[in-house]
Amino acid sequence: MRSLPEADPGVPDIRSPLRYLWWNARRQAVPLLAGIGYASLWWLVQALMPAVLGRGIEAVTAKDTGSLLTWSAILFGLGLVQAFTGIMRHRMAVFNWLSAAYRTVQLTSRQAARLGATLPKRLSTGEVVSVGNSDIAHIGSSMDILLRGVGSILAIVTVTVILISTSLPLGLLVLFGVPLMAVAVGPLLRPLHRRQQAQRELAGELSTRAADIVAGLRVLRGIGGEQVFAARYRAESQRVRHAGVRVSGVESVLEGAQIVLPGLLIAIVTGVGASFAVAGDIPTGQLVAFYLYAVFLIGPMRTLTEAADKLTKGHVAAGRVIRILSIEPEVTGGTGTGEGGVLRDSYSGVTLQPGTLTAVAADTPDDAIAIADRLGRYAEGDVTFGAVELRTLPLEQIRSRILVADNGARLFNGRLRDELDVRGTATDTRIREALDAACATDVVEALPDGLDAHVAEAGREFSGGQQQRLRLARALVTDPEVLILVEPTSAVDAHSEARIAERLAKARSGRTTMVCTTSPLVLDRAEHVIYVENGRVLAEGTHRQLLDGSPAYAATVTRGED
Predict the structure, then answer these.
(1) Cβ(512)–Cβ(343) below 8 Å
(2) Could you say which DSSP state residue 344 is in?
(3) pLDDT per residue as tens digits for the range 158-181
(4) Under 8 Å CB-to-CB from 460, ≥6 apart: which residues?
(5) What is the mean pLDDT of residues 453-462?
(6) What is the distance, to the nearest Å, from the Cα of residue 535 to the centroid of all Cα atoms in its chain?
(7) What are the φ and ψ backbone dihedral angles of 285, each rounded to 5 degrees?
(8) Distance between CA atoms of 468 and 450, rounded to whole angstroms?
């Protein structure tokens, strides 16, 4: 069953993904700036502590009790501020991480609903799944590191200013040393970016392969192909593993650089400061402060290299999300209005009269599916609905008035009642009437909790015929103005098919219904039958009239049997 959820109140139109993306970015701006503010203050307080400790040591050396108490009180106050800002920084970091990650999920989910049938044609399942599996984590981490990264830059600037005001050579050493470290790390980022992109693509393909194997496991076992596909999966997983090893090779060098480069700068700053203290150019308290500054700088500089790594991963992940958002639906709607009426596909000549149960039998199943897609506005076509062209109506209105239910529809996780009543407006009586019409009452009665039973993913606890009957019941519960069913009885036995054919006509009495089928049992119950050959209407009438008057129709629906 194909449908599009209604937009939430206050949310920009999901038909404009970039506008919706900008709206989400604006919502993220305030907590992001607040987090940057707390992180900056947190780093700044830590940057001031070595200077205060140095002054306290000088007070001890000078045996100045009053000055010692003053600097101790200042240090205690800085500790309290650091504790508060540290708590708030972490709180805002987690908030921004979760907001960025799950707003990305919401954004891609809305775009997926907007694209509808276009999405599986343009992207594999694995590519879409990988957004929720890994990309949201990288996008969230990039928001987290952005807070500490901006604060670390402020801390390094503060330390540099303090060192320059105290000792010009040491200040210049830090001033030029930090940019040189950043330049040294730079060459690692491009190969890291390239290898991460390749690894993400391979992981997406592997997810697609796994989904295919799981979905078709019953068929694979039936034909003895599970070992072949398992071998293919192992080969692809090894390619993903090798790609991950190549990524980790660059990441390990980057991680080592986070230790070696800051350590080297600390050693130089401490050595130069010690030589100045021995020469008597700076007091002992300042030497201790310089050493503490050198140790302190490890944190901000490691944060900068970490930011380079996480922002690179976030950039790769964001590129995948943007790729999904940049896809446009193959079909769009207009802004017109219409009262409905006769639904006609000009290319094939198929015409659905209001309130009539019409069956379409095609010599090739794909022709019937193509007609259903055009009538349901899932493919471009010259289709009229009453006095207006179907393309001029809003797409949301078309989806609410014309329902195309095919065998590609799925059952999702959740209560069976919610699976059947997707709009949440049907009564129990209405649901049971639909189940009876679809001959699915026995399926529900066999469940311990009946309609409140939990449905597993893709309804895997049901057989193919049971799933088909439940999908038909779901379509009947929806009760659209026009219902188009594609092979609704292909997986059920002949007795159930005969009952469904009889009850379907009664359930849809007075409503427009089209059934694409070559089943004689269903065709015999239709009020009007249309035979399509090579995509065009070749004959029309009742089932028995066409059997007598159209040899091609008779050969199609009887499979060449006398």
Answers:
(1) yes
(2) E
(3) 888 887 887 787 777 777 776 777
(4) none
(5) 82
(6) 37
(7) -60, -40
(8) 18
